[in-house]
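Worked example 2:
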Amino acid sequence: MKRILLLILATALTTISAVAQKTNTTFAKKDNVLGIGFGIGGVYGFSGFSSQSPAFGLQYDRGIVELGMGGVIGVGGFVGYKGFVNKIETGGDTYKGQWNVLIIGARGTFHYDLFEVKNLDTYAGTMIAFHVVNEKEDYPNNVFVTSTSHSNAAYASIFAGAKYYFSPQVAGFGELGYGVSWLTLGMAFKF
């Protein structure tokens, strides 16, 4: 009876150890990570506006290749929204142009344990995105005002980020980049 209990205990400890080793990996081949976040600033050909909304986005990343030197290559997608407003007040009238941008993109990432901190996933990447622009102008008395015109177009962006896992499946993340936003913060969920 004592041997059976020791065997069960040894098996349980081995299983727990194997699971713990797997969950300590922050990003590996076949991992799926879904993130939701908001970003501030950004460019993509839009400049000189009175105001802009934060960029709201949903991103997906899947590990596809583990490299021999360390690191994992991931691919995924992005769907987001960003709004811009240009308001000019002159002669008692307000001239307003509004641009709502739907962003649909494909992302590629390279995850590498840069700082060797437990539960920290550091990565860099690039994205090619298509912007669907909906423009609305509100000018009083049908006055024509020369405004900046933006149309549907494809753009490229680069970013670097980090995810810190509070549990094996839940992380907070931050990304710095050029494109949709300068700084993006959010939550990520691994499945």
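The chain has one domain: 2-190. The radius of gyration is 23 Å.
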